């Protein structure tokens, strides 16, 4: 069983890894054999797992810098590191309860206000983070290739223009499918993992938003699209807080095309894996039949 507490300011990486390996009752979130969250003290938690990358920590740090903490709280990242294939992010502990169900209308309105506020934060190139100039570049808050549900995990594509983002989706559509067009949209801060479990109602009454791995600057419709892909569009949360007030049929059509592109990406990925498996099996059988020297 892990020690009762670990001081995140002075603990070594080895001590943090050891604590997480034998967390016991300190384990407060995550899934078995997946990413997990361990409370190491009254001030800090550690998110760790094969799916945790240092880039997520940098993305969350950038979110903290961009967002007014009086509107929505982003946990401070104290440090992040890798140990083999397992990533560790040491961050501020948010003391409260997840909003698994939005039962109070006042909470629903507060989440709506948070989503509307995030959409006012405009995208800019990572190279001009601390300048007032506006250079729209789609992608993660900290720059680089996007991560999350929408993207093909077998490739890392960095988008330098919104037109490149359009081409990425349109190449994954059939000829008869309606092509997407994003150039009419501003690039705004999108979280891209909006779900009740990621909102924490803190003990002081404020609200915290967790899990910033997928966040970036994208057209606002990306937020709705990812939610529909994750929940099938049947979760009342989507209608309550994710869709903007001025949502229209044209945007719904764009999301339908994005969904088709996503589905084709998934199918092609599994076809490639199946083809590779068949090729390997064929090679194995061929090698088995080859005469020995």
From TrEMBL:
Residues 41-232 form the Aminoglycoside phosphotransferase domain. It comes from the Eukaryota. It holds the Pfam family APH. Keywords: Kinase, Transferase. The keyword Cell cycle does not apply. GO terms for molecular function: kinase activity. The keyword Kinase applies. This is Protein kinase-like (PK-like). It comes from Glarea lozoyensis (strain ATCC 20868 / MF5171).
């Amino acid at each position: 069983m892990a020690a009762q507490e670990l001081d995140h300011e002075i603990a070594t990486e080895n001590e943090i890894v050891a604590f997480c390996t034998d967390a016991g009752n300190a384990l407060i979130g995550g899934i078995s054999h997946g990413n997990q969250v361990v409370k190491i003290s009254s001030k800090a938690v550690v998110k760790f797992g094969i799916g945790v990358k240092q880039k997520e920590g940098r993305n969350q740090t950038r979110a903290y810098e961009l967002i007014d903490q009086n509107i929505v709280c982003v946990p401070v990242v104290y440090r992040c590191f890798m140990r083999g294939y397992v990533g560790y992010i040491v961050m501020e502990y948010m003391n409260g309860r997840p909003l698994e169900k939005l039962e109070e209308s006042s909470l629903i309105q507060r989440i709506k206000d948070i989503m509307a506020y995030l959409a006012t934060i405009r995208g800019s190139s990572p190279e001009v983070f601390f300048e007032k100039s506006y250079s729209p570049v789609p992608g993660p808050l900290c720059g680089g290739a996007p991560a999350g549900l929408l993207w093909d995990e077998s490739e890392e594509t960095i988008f330098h223009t919104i037109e490149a983002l359009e081409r990425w989706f349109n190449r994954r559509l059939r000829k008869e499918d309606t092509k997407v067009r994003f150039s009419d949209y501003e690039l705004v801060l999108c979280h891209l993992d909006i779900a009740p479990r990621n909102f924490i109602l803190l003990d002081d009454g404020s609200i915290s938003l967790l899990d910033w791995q997928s966040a970036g600057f994208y057209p606002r419709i990306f937020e709705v699209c990812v939610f529909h892909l994750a929940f099938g569009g049947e979760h009342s949360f989507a209608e309550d807080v994710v869709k903007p007030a001025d949502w229209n049929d044209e945007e719904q059509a764009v999301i339908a095309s994005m969904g088709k592109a996503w589905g084709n990406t998934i199918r092609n990925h599994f076809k490639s894996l199946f083809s590779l498996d068949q090729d390997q099996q064929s090679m194995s059988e061929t090698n088995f039949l080859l005469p020995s020297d």
